[in-house]
Amino acid sequence: MEDPRLHALDMVGLIGQFVSQALAVVVIECIAFGIYTLLVICAITVIARVRSDLTAKKWVLLAACFAMYANAAGHLGVTLASVFEDDRRSNYIQQMVYQCLANAVVNDACSSLESLPASYYQSAVEITSFQTARSALLSINMLLGDIIVLWRAWVLWPNQRTVQACSSSIILVTTVMLIGTVTMDDGLTFLFFPIAIFLSLFTNIWSTALIVVRAWQHRQQIGAQLHGGSRTRAQTALLLLIESGVLYFLLWVPLAGYAIVDIAELYPGSLAFLPSDPGAHYLKAMMDVVSGALIDVVGMYPTAVILVAEVSHQHTQRMLSLNDITTVALARF
After folding, report:
1. In whole angstroms, what is the distance from residue 260 CA to residue 267 CA?
2. Domain span at 165
3. What average pLDDT does the structure give for the chain?
4. In Å, how far from its chain's centre is CA 2?
5. What are phi and psi for residue 156, nearest 5 degrees?
6. What keywords does the record list, in alphabetical order (predicted)?
7. Which of 15, 52, 96, 138 has the fewest CB atoms in 10 Å of its CB?
8. Residue 78: CB partners within 8 Å, gap ≥ 6?
């Protein structure tokens, strides 16, 4: 029978290595969550000034954004709890191993190690309840983010069944992939999640393309009346959505590269990175970003769009008010 001390020493090394790697993820997630919190505070401050003018649709959108922020906070809490638990488990096993080695009982089994529950010997690569919770929270935020991204384009194409059918199909497939990420076994999880990343990238491309087409149509319709004049409020809003969509697309491109590498590694002989290879460094960096910052970044995007759109709307309203005051003053003069 295998000496449990040897098995425990291997587990100590694996768990200790995981704790060290997890610390980098915790730092990244804390920084991202701090930025996310500042963005949410700014959004609340701006929206509080005009809360009486908010429509029901905007309230629903705000509720979704706050739900995403709550998920990000829960994700950070679970990450911290998992690191503390793994550190505690590693320290406990180390104490048991050192106790057995100090007794110098080489040929006899160590009863204190044999009595440890199997959960203490879980390696960092196995699916745990903490990892399942983190995957579930990230999946919810990715799904809400994709819905908000598609909603931007949906409102510009009312009663267009083709657009609505395609958008609904994308969300349905994404939902299936994200559910598979949380519920399937370890091997399938590493297949479902990269596919979900590609679907989120495609969702943004589809939504931005719809907005670009609508902006072009709008410009064609009013081009004759403008005669090269200033932009209308609708044009400004559409350009804002296009620019934000392009920025979000640039964010997802490196993540899509990570997904390609992640899927390729599932097939033996397709990719084999040494620890010193640039590909290995890229994969580890993207893994840290996905594990730590992705849930915050996914939530930042709709919050930032709402914030910038509301600031732009308030600025436009102030300019219109100033124009009205100037017109009245000139009329009196």
Report:
1. 12
2. 4-332
3. 72
4. 43
5. -85, -10
6. Membrane, Transmembrane, Transmembrane helix
7. 52
8. 130, 133, 134, 137
